[in-house]
Amino acid sequence: MQKNTVTLFGELLLRLDTPDHQRLEQADSLQVSYTGGEANVAVALSQWGVESSIVSAVPENALGKACLNHFRRYGVNTDSVVRTGDRLGTLYVEKGAGQRGTRVTYDREATSFRKIQPEDIDWQRVLVNCSWFHFTGTALVSPSTRNTLIAGLKIARELEIPTSFDVSYRSKLWSVAEATKAFQEVISNADLLIGSELDASTFFGVTQTGDQALQDLHQKLGLKWTAFTDRRSDEFGRNFYSAKFFDGETIFKSDEQQTFNVDRIGTGDAFAAGLIYCLLNKSPDKYSVDFATAAAVLKHTISGDFALLSRSEIDVFVQGNAKGKISR
Protein backbone atom coordinates (compact mmCIF):
# COMPACT_ATOMS: atom_id res chain seq x y z
CA MET A 1 0.00 0.00 0.00
CA GLN A 2 1.45 3.35 -1.02
CA LYS A 3 1.81 6.42 1.14
CA ASN A 4 -1.13 8.86 1.34
CA THR A 5 -3.73 6.17 0.82
CA VAL A 6 -7.42 6.67 1.55
CA THR A 7 -8.65 3.53 3.31
CA LEU A 8 -12.33 2.60 3.18
CA PHE A 9 -14.19 -0.08 5.15
CA GLY A 10 -17.46 -1.45 3.81
CA GLU A 11 -19.36 -4.17 2.01
CA LEU A 12 -18.80 -5.07 -1.64
CA LEU A 13 -21.95 -6.06 -3.48
CA LEU A 14 -23.23 -7.60 -6.68
CA ARG A 15 -25.67 -5.22 -8.44
CA LEU A 16 -28.26 -6.70 -10.80
CA ASP A 17 -30.32 -4.27 -12.92
CA THR A 18 -33.47 -4.97 -14.87
CA PRO A 19 -33.21 -3.76 -18.50
CA ASP A 20 -35.17 -0.83 -19.96
CA HIS A 21 -36.82 0.29 -16.71
CA GLN A 22 -38.59 -3.06 -16.32
CA ARG A 23 -39.99 -4.38 -13.06
CA LEU A 24 -38.42 -7.51 -11.62
CA GLU A 25 -41.65 -9.36 -12.41
CA GLN A 26 -41.13 -8.60 -16.11
CA ALA A 27 -37.41 -9.12 -16.53
CA ASP A 28 -35.94 -12.27 -18.05
CA SER A 29 -32.36 -10.97 -17.90
CA LEU A 30 -30.33 -8.84 -15.51
CA GLN A 31 -27.29 -6.62 -16.04
CA VAL A 32 -24.32 -7.41 -13.78
CA SER A 33 -22.08 -4.87 -12.06
CA TYR A 34 -20.50 -4.47 -8.62
CA THR A 35 -20.87 -1.74 -6.03
CA GLY A 36 -20.58 -0.71 -2.39
CA GLY A 37 -20.93 2.74 -0.80
CA GLU A 38 -17.33 2.98 0.36
CA ALA A 39 -16.01 1.31 -2.79
CA ASN A 40 -17.87 3.87 -4.93
CA VAL A 41 -15.96 6.58 -3.07
CA ALA A 42 -12.72 4.68 -3.70
CA VAL A 43 -13.38 4.50 -7.45
CA ALA A 44 -14.07 8.25 -7.67
CA LEU A 45 -10.92 9.12 -5.72
CA SER A 46 -8.89 6.80 -7.92
CA GLN A 47 -10.12 8.71 -11.00
CA TRP A 48 -8.69 11.87 -9.41
CA GLY A 49 -5.26 10.42 -8.70
CA VAL A 50 -5.76 9.41 -5.06
CA GLU A 51 -4.54 5.95 -4.02
CA SER A 52 -7.56 4.17 -2.52
CA SER A 53 -7.74 0.86 -0.67
CA ILE A 54 -10.90 -1.02 0.30
CA VAL A 55 -11.10 -3.22 3.40
CA SER A 56 -13.87 -5.79 3.15
CA ALA A 57 -14.63 -9.51 2.77
CA VAL A 58 -15.82 -11.49 -0.25
CA PRO A 59 -16.25 -15.23 -0.80
CA GLU A 60 -13.40 -17.42 -1.97
CA ASN A 61 -15.10 -18.31 -5.25
CA ALA A 62 -15.47 -17.08 -8.82
CA LEU A 63 -18.03 -14.43 -7.84
CA GLY A 64 -15.72 -12.95 -5.23
CA LYS A 65 -12.87 -12.93 -7.75
CA ALA A 66 -15.04 -11.20 -10.36
CA CYS A 67 -16.03 -8.57 -7.81
CA LEU A 68 -12.43 -7.74 -6.91
CA ASN A 69 -11.38 -7.70 -10.56
CA HIS A 70 -14.12 -5.14 -11.23
CA PHE A 71 -12.76 -2.70 -8.66
CA ARG A 72 -9.14 -3.28 -9.66
CA ARG A 73 -10.18 -2.26 -13.19
CA TYR A 74 -10.81 1.22 -11.81
CA GLY A 75 -7.57 1.42 -9.84
CA VAL A 76 -8.83 0.44 -6.38
CA ASN A 77 -6.40 -1.52 -4.19
CA THR A 78 -8.08 -4.73 -2.95
CA ASP A 79 -5.11 -6.25 -1.09
CA SER A 80 -6.90 -5.81 2.27
CA VAL A 81 -10.07 -7.65 1.23
CA VAL A 82 -10.44 -10.90 3.17
CA ARG A 83 -11.45 -14.00 1.17
CA THR A 84 -13.83 -15.91 3.42
CA GLY A 85 -17.38 -17.28 3.58
CA ASP A 86 -19.48 -18.19 0.57
CA ARG A 87 -21.95 -15.33 -0.04
CA LEU A 88 -21.62 -11.97 -1.74
CA GLY A 89 -24.35 -9.48 -0.89
CA THR A 90 -26.69 -8.58 -3.75
CA LEU A 91 -28.97 -5.71 -4.65
CA TYR A 92 -31.59 -5.84 -7.39
CA VAL A 93 -32.33 -2.50 -9.04
CA GLU A 94 -35.43 -1.45 -10.95
CA LYS A 95 -34.69 1.98 -12.42
CA GLY A 96 -37.66 4.30 -12.14
CA ALA A 97 -39.17 6.45 -14.85
CA GLY A 98 -41.31 9.55 -14.57
CA GLN A 99 -43.32 9.50 -11.36
CA ARG A 100 -42.17 5.95 -10.50
CA GLY A 101 -39.04 6.00 -8.39
CA THR A 102 -36.16 3.54 -8.50
CA ARG A 103 -36.69 0.46 -6.30
CA VAL A 104 -33.89 -1.52 -4.65
CA THR A 105 -34.32 -5.03 -3.24
CA TYR A 106 -31.54 -6.33 -0.99
CA ASP A 107 -30.20 -9.81 -0.34
CA ARG A 108 -27.51 -9.15 2.26
CA GLU A 109 -28.00 -11.64 5.08
CA ALA A 110 -25.19 -14.00 6.17
CA THR A 111 -22.72 -12.59 3.65
CA SER A 112 -18.95 -12.88 3.86
CA PHE A 113 -18.74 -9.25 4.96
CA ARG A 114 -21.32 -9.59 7.72
CA LYS A 115 -19.31 -12.45 9.20
CA ILE A 116 -16.01 -10.56 9.29
CA GLN A 117 -14.29 -10.48 12.71
CA PRO A 118 -11.83 -7.96 14.20
CA GLU A 119 -9.03 -10.50 14.16
CA ASP A 120 -9.45 -10.91 10.38
CA ILE A 121 -7.94 -7.45 9.74
CA ASP A 122 -4.44 -6.37 10.72
CA TRP A 123 -5.37 -2.71 11.17
CA GLN A 124 -1.84 -1.65 12.11
CA ARG A 125 -0.61 -2.87 8.74
CA VAL A 126 -3.61 -1.62 6.80
CA LEU A 127 -3.44 1.91 8.22
CA VAL A 128 0.31 2.40 8.48
CA ASN A 129 0.48 4.72 5.44
CA CYS A 130 -3.11 5.89 5.50
CA SER A 131 -3.96 9.60 5.16
CA TRP A 132 -7.76 9.30 5.48
CA PHE A 133 -10.25 6.66 6.72
CA HIS A 134 -13.87 6.53 5.49
CA PHE A 135 -16.96 4.46 6.26
CA THR A 136 -20.74 4.68 5.92
CA GLY A 137 -23.64 3.67 8.15
CA THR A 138 -24.15 0.44 6.22
CA ALA A 139 -20.75 -0.80 7.45
CA LEU A 140 -22.30 -1.05 10.94
CA VAL A 141 -25.32 -3.24 10.25
CA SER A 142 -24.02 -6.40 11.94
CA PRO A 143 -22.32 -6.73 15.35
CA SER A 144 -19.24 -8.33 13.82
CA THR A 145 -18.73 -5.63 11.19
CA ARG A 146 -19.33 -2.97 13.84
CA ASN A 147 -16.71 -4.50 16.17
CA THR A 148 -14.26 -4.81 13.29
CA LEU A 149 -14.76 -1.18 12.34
CA ILE A 150 -14.41 0.01 15.94
CA ALA A 151 -11.07 -1.81 16.14
CA GLY A 152 -9.95 0.02 13.01
CA LEU A 153 -11.17 3.38 14.28
CA LYS A 154 -9.17 2.91 17.48
CA ILE A 155 -5.97 2.43 15.48
CA ALA A 156 -6.87 5.36 13.22
CA ARG A 157 -7.23 7.58 16.29
CA GLU A 158 -3.85 6.44 17.62
CA LEU A 159 -2.25 7.26 14.26
CA GLU A 160 -4.11 10.62 14.07
CA ILE A 161 -5.76 9.71 10.76
CA PRO A 162 -8.73 11.94 9.80
CA THR A 163 -11.95 9.93 9.62
CA SER A 164 -15.20 10.55 7.75
CA PHE A 165 -18.62 9.02 8.41
CA ASP A 166 -21.42 9.18 5.82
CA VAL A 167 -24.70 8.37 7.61
CA SER A 168 -26.18 6.70 4.50
CA TYR A 169 -29.12 5.17 6.37
CA ARG A 170 -30.98 2.38 4.53
CA SER A 171 -34.39 1.64 6.06
CA LYS A 172 -34.60 -1.75 4.32
CA LEU A 173 -31.50 -2.94 6.18
CA TRP A 174 -32.33 -2.02 9.78
CA SER A 175 -34.55 0.05 12.03
CA VAL A 176 -33.99 3.63 13.12
CA ALA A 177 -33.50 2.44 16.71
CA GLU A 178 -30.82 -0.08 15.69
CA ALA A 179 -29.02 2.45 13.51
CA THR A 180 -29.16 5.16 16.17
CA LYS A 181 -27.50 2.89 18.73
CA ALA A 182 -24.77 1.88 16.27
CA PHE A 183 -24.12 5.42 15.04
CA GLN A 184 -23.73 6.73 18.56
CA GLU A 185 -21.18 4.01 19.29
CA VAL A 186 -18.81 5.26 16.59
CA ILE A 187 -19.53 8.95 16.08
CA SER A 188 -16.93 10.11 18.60
CA ASN A 189 -14.28 8.77 16.21
CA ALA A 190 -15.42 10.88 13.24
CA ASP A 191 -13.83 14.17 12.18
CA LEU A 192 -16.22 14.69 9.25
CA LEU A 193 -19.90 13.76 9.26
CA ILE A 194 -21.85 13.76 5.99
CA GLY A 195 -25.61 13.58 6.32
CA SER A 196 -28.73 15.73 6.20
CA GLU A 197 -30.95 17.82 8.39
CA LEU A 198 -33.25 14.79 8.72
CA ASP A 199 -30.33 12.64 9.90
CA ALA A 200 -29.47 15.25 12.54
CA SER A 201 -32.95 15.04 14.07
CA THR A 202 -33.54 11.30 13.53
CA PHE A 203 -30.28 9.88 14.86
CA PHE A 204 -28.68 12.61 16.97
CA GLY A 205 -31.60 14.44 18.59
CA VAL A 206 -31.04 17.85 17.01
CA THR A 207 -34.29 19.83 17.23
CA GLN A 208 -33.37 22.96 15.27
CA THR A 209 -33.73 23.37 11.51
CA GLY A 210 -31.82 25.09 8.72
CA ASP A 211 -28.32 26.39 9.37
CA GLN A 212 -28.84 26.10 13.11
CA ALA A 213 -29.29 22.32 12.79
CA LEU A 214 -25.91 22.07 11.07
CA GLN A 215 -24.22 24.14 13.76
CA ASP A 216 -25.94 22.34 16.64
CA LEU A 217 -25.00 18.90 15.32
CA HIS A 218 -21.42 20.02 14.79
CA GLN A 219 -21.13 21.29 18.35
CA LYS A 220 -23.01 18.40 19.95
CA LEU A 221 -20.79 15.75 18.34
CA GLY A 222 -17.52 17.66 18.60
CA LEU A 223 -16.84 17.40 14.87
CA LYS A 224 -14.13 19.11 12.86
CA TRP A 225 -16.28 19.37 9.73
CA THR A 226 -19.98 18.77 9.05
CA ALA A 227 -21.76 18.58 5.69
CA PHE A 228 -25.45 18.38 4.82
CA THR A 229 -26.82 17.53 1.39
CA ASP A 230 -30.35 18.37 0.32
CA ARG A 231 -32.65 17.15 -2.43
CA ARG A 232 -35.94 18.68 -3.42
CA SER A 233 -38.49 18.39 -6.21
CA ASP A 234 -40.74 21.16 -7.49
CA GLU A 235 -44.36 21.04 -8.72
CA PHE A 236 -43.14 20.30 -12.24
CA GLY A 237 -41.26 17.16 -11.15
CA ARG A 238 -37.83 18.75 -11.56
CA ASN A 239 -35.15 17.61 -9.10
CA PHE A 240 -32.59 19.84 -7.40
CA TYR A 241 -29.47 19.14 -5.33
CA SER A 242 -27.47 21.39 -2.99
CA ALA A 243 -25.14 21.14 -0.01
CA LYS A 244 -23.64 23.12 2.82
CA PHE A 245 -20.41 22.65 4.73
CA PHE A 246 -19.44 23.88 8.19
CA ASP A 247 -15.85 24.14 9.41
CA GLY A 248 -16.72 25.27 12.93
CA GLU A 249 -16.67 28.95 12.05
CA THR A 250 -18.39 29.55 8.72
CA ILE A 251 -21.15 27.79 6.77
CA PHE A 252 -20.33 27.49 3.06
CA LYS A 253 -23.20 26.78 0.66
CA SER A 254 -23.23 25.47 -2.88
CA ASP A 255 -25.57 26.79 -5.53
CA GLU A 256 -28.68 24.67 -5.99
CA GLN A 257 -28.34 22.62 -9.18
CA GLN A 258 -31.03 20.90 -11.20
CA THR A 259 -30.26 17.21 -11.77
CA PHE A 260 -30.89 15.02 -14.80
CA ASN A 261 -31.51 11.58 -13.33
CA VAL A 262 -30.06 8.77 -15.39
CA ASP A 263 -29.08 6.93 -12.18
CA ARG A 264 -29.33 8.37 -8.66
CA ILE A 265 -27.54 5.47 -6.96
CA GLY A 266 -24.02 6.46 -5.94
CA THR A 267 -24.59 10.23 -6.03
CA GLY A 268 -24.08 10.59 -2.28
CA ASP A 269 -20.85 8.64 -2.59
CA ALA A 270 -19.70 11.04 -5.32
CA PHE A 271 -20.35 13.94 -2.94
CA ALA A 272 -18.39 12.23 -0.15
CA ALA A 273 -15.49 11.53 -2.52
CA GLY A 274 -15.44 15.14 -3.68
CA LEU A 275 -15.33 16.48 -0.14
CA ILE A 276 -12.62 14.04 0.98
CA TYR A 277 -10.55 14.89 -2.10
CA CYS A 278 -10.73 18.61 -1.38
CA LEU A 279 -10.00 18.25 2.33
CA LEU A 280 -6.97 16.08 1.58
CA ASN A 281 -5.72 18.77 -0.77
CA LYS A 282 -6.55 21.59 1.67
CA SER A 283 -8.78 23.30 -0.88
CA PRO A 284 -10.72 26.44 0.14
CA ASP A 285 -13.95 25.52 1.94
CA LYS A 286 -16.29 27.18 -0.60
CA TYR A 287 -14.55 25.41 -3.46
CA SER A 288 -14.74 22.12 -1.54
CA VAL A 289 -18.53 22.16 -1.20
CA ASP A 290 -18.93 23.35 -4.81
CA PHE A 291 -16.63 20.58 -6.10
CA ALA A 292 -18.39 17.88 -4.07
CA THR A 293 -21.82 19.10 -5.15
CA ALA A 294 -20.76 19.20 -8.79
CA ALA A 295 -19.45 15.63 -8.54
CA ALA A 296 -22.80 14.48 -7.15
CA VAL A 297 -24.85 16.39 -9.74
CA LEU A 298 -22.79 15.04 -12.63
CA LYS A 299 -22.95 11.50 -11.23
CA HIS A 300 -26.75 11.62 -11.76
CA THR A 301 -26.04 11.54 -15.51
CA ILE A 302 -23.99 8.30 -15.39
CA SER A 303 -25.43 4.78 -15.33
CA GLY A 304 -24.14 2.54 -12.58
CA ASP A 305 -22.71 3.45 -9.20
CA PHE A 306 -19.41 5.05 -10.13
CA ALA A 307 -18.63 8.75 -10.59
CA LEU A 308 -16.47 8.23 -13.67
CA LEU A 309 -15.57 11.90 -13.90
CA SER A 310 -12.32 13.76 -14.35
CA ARG A 311 -11.33 16.66 -12.13
CA SER A 312 -11.38 18.96 -15.16
CA GLU A 313 -14.99 17.98 -15.99
CA ILE A 314 -16.04 18.80 -12.45
CA ASP A 315 -14.12 22.09 -12.45
CA VAL A 316 -15.77 23.14 -15.70
CA PHE A 317 -19.14 22.52 -14.07
CA VAL A 318 -18.15 24.42 -10.91
CA GLN A 319 -17.17 27.39 -13.08
CA GLY A 320 -20.56 27.30 -14.80
CA ASN A 321 -19.13 26.61 -18.24
CA ALA A 322 -19.99 24.08 -20.95
CA LYS A 323 -22.98 22.47 -19.22
CA GLY A 324 -24.37 19.95 -21.67
CA LYS A 325 -22.17 21.10 -24.53
CA ILE A 326 -20.29 18.77 -26.84
CA SER A 327 -16.60 18.56 -25.91
CA ARG A 328 -14.58 18.40 -29.15
Write the SSE topology:
Blueprint (H helix, E strand, L loop, with lengths): L4 E5 L3 E5 L13 E5 L1 H11 L4 E7 L3 H12 L7 E3 L5 E6 L8 E5 L15 H4 L3 E7 L6 H16 L4 E4 L9 H11 L5 E4 L1 H8 L5 H12 L3 E9 L5 E8 L4 E3 L3 E3 L7 H14 L4 H15 L11 H8 L10
Parallel strand pairs: 1-4, 1-8, 2-6, 4-5, 8-9, 9-10, 10-11
Antiparallel strand pairs: 2-3, 6-7, 11-12, 12-13, 12-14
Helix pairs in contact: 1-8, 6-7, 8-9, 9-10
Can you put this structure into words, describing what you see?
- The protein is of the alpha/beta class.
- It has a single domain (about 5-320), classed as 3-Layer(aba) Sandwich (UDP-N-acetylmuramoyl-L-alanine:D-glutamate ligase), CATH 3.40.1190.20.
- About 35% of the residues lie in helices and about 25% in strands.
- The protein is built from 10 helices and 14 strands.
- The longest helix has 16 residues, at about 145-160.
Structure at a glance:
The chain is of the alpha/beta class and 328 residues long.
- What general outline do the C-alpha atoms trace? globular
* Biggest sheet character: 10 strands, mixed
How many domains comprise the coordinates?
Answer: 1
What class, by secondary structure content? alpha/beta
Instruction: Report the C-alpha radius of gyration, rounded.
Output: 19 Å
Oligomeric status = single chain
- What portion of residues is helical? 25-40%
Quickly name the level 1 CATH class: Alpha Beta
Number of beta-strand segments: 14
In whole angstroms, the N-to-C terminal distance is 37 Å
Return the CATH architecture.
3-Layer(aba) Sandwich
What sequence of helices (H) and strands (E) makes up the elements? Answer: EEEHEHEEEHEHEHEHHEEEEHHH
Beta strand %: 15-25%
Number of helix segments? 10
User: What is the CATH superfamily classification?
Assistant: Ribokinase
CATH topology: UDP-N-acetylmuramoyl-L-alanine:D-glutamate ligase
Task: Return the average pLDDT rounded to an integer.
Answer: 94
Unreliable segments of 5+ consecutive residues: none
